[in-house]
Write a structure and sequence with these properties.
- The chain is α/β, with parallel strands linked by helices and 325 residues long.
- The protein folds into three domains: 35 residues, 434 Repressor (Amino-terminal Domain) (Orthogonal Bundle); 134 residues, Rossmann fold (3-Layer(aba) Sandwich), CATH 3.40.50; 144 residues, Response regulator (Rossmann fold).
- The chain has twelve helices and twelve strands.
- The strands form two sheets. Strands 2-1-3-4-5-11 form a six-stranded parallel sheet, with helices on both faces. It has a six-stranded mixed sheet with strand order 7-6-8-9-10-12, with helices on both faces.
- Strand 8, helix 10 and strand 9 form a beta-alpha-beta unit.
- The chain starts with a helix and ends with a helix.
């Protein structure tokens, strides 16, 4: 058996007879051989790794995205290097430099803040990239767009149908494009539904930030319902309402956004807008795979919908609360 035959079996570069392939694999198992991936990548001039850059590895929004991305990479005999930016644009830029150094053929940038210089770096290095609500589709650049507007409109329609006329909103840092879109979608939907002037407070998308922002809403006449820009913020809001002696949903209804795993297990279970994170991970991989194997590296726009999940944290406002307003 020649060295070339063994190489073709290991690298999948040419079809071999089933009997020959099995003999090679059996020998590998007996010898305990482990392929030198670094040497293989060097010979190929391209890595079998893909890059995945996320905002916050501690945020329960990201594990399902990461898992589905890695699963699909493995199905295609690739793997993923996951890097965390902690919402720091400079750290994201350094992550891109590291991935280019690893000769990855594609990078999924699923973070809320990104330096445009990194896009130029990836393009010059001929690395395919896909963004989450940030990218402008171009050669070797794809984008995944989330329908925040429809999700927020469905949540406010739900609250309006229950009888809520004043709904507060707790968002996040508005310099983040996706956060600004959610806040604007809330304001537009409230106007469309003829709701009263709805107080809006900016938080930081964390439980602690939601708690503090809710304090600002409670400093005045509290609304009968509060919508949060994400579920972590909603959980902070719920804790602050509890500490203020207000019961959910009897005194104040609460709605979140994202439908993270914890949303189903809050007390009461959180009504929220579901964002299919598994689908985002799959689309991110598919976008990179398509561009890597397209001679023209054509980018695409991908759309992800949202839908409301009704649980126990919303109900019609009590007559006493409505009268008090």
């Amino acid at each position: 058996m020649s060295i070339a035959t063994v190489s073709h079996v290991l690298n999948g570069t040419r079809s071999t007879r089933p009997q020959t392939r099995e003999r090679v694999l059996d020998a590998i198992r007996q010898l305990g051989y482990s392929q030198n991936l670094a040497a293989r990548n060097l010979a190929r001039g391209r890595s079998s790794l893909l890059g995945l850059i996320i905002s916050d590895i501690r945020n329960p929004f990201f594990p399902e995205i990461t898992s589905s991305f890695q699963d699909h990479a493995l199905e295609h005999e690739m793997d993923a290097v996951v890097l965390n930016t902690n919402y720091d644009a400079e750290r994201a830029l350094n992550s891109v430099r590291r991935l280019i150094g690893l000769q990855v053929p594609g990078v999924a940038i699923l973070t809320s803040q990104f330096d445009p210089a990194a896009v130029d770096m990836l393009t010059r290095a001929n690395v395919a990239s896909v963004f989450l609500d940030l990218g402008k589709v171009d050669r070797s650049i794809s984008n995944i767009s989330i329908d925040y507007e429809q999700g927020i409109l469905s949540a406010l329609r739900h609250l309006s149908a229950l009888g809520h006329r004043c709904v507060g909103y707790v968002g996040g840092p508005v310099h983040l494009p996706s956060v600004a879109r959610r806040k604007e979608a809330f304001a537009q939907s409230a106007r469309q539904l003829g709701l009263e002037d709805c107080p809006m407070v900016d938080g930081d998308l964390t439980v602690i930030g939601g708690y503090a922002a809710c304090s600002a809403l409670l400093a005045h006449q509290p609304p009968t319902a509060i919508m949060a820009g994400n579920d972590l913020t909603a959980i902070g809001v719920m804790h602050r309402l509890w500490d203020a002696g207000l019961q959910i949903p009897r005194d104040v209804s609460v709605v979140g956004f994202d439908d993270i795993l914890f949303a189903e297990y809050t007390q009461p279970a959180l009504t929220t807008v579901a964002l299919p994170r598994k689908e985002i991970g799959i689309l991110a991989f598919q976008a990179l795979w398509a561009m890597i194997h397209d001679p023209e590296q054509r980018g695409r726009e991908y759309h992800v919908g949202t839908h409301l999940v009704e649980r126990r944290s919303t109900m019609p406002p009590s007559p006493a609360r409505v009268k008090a307003r």
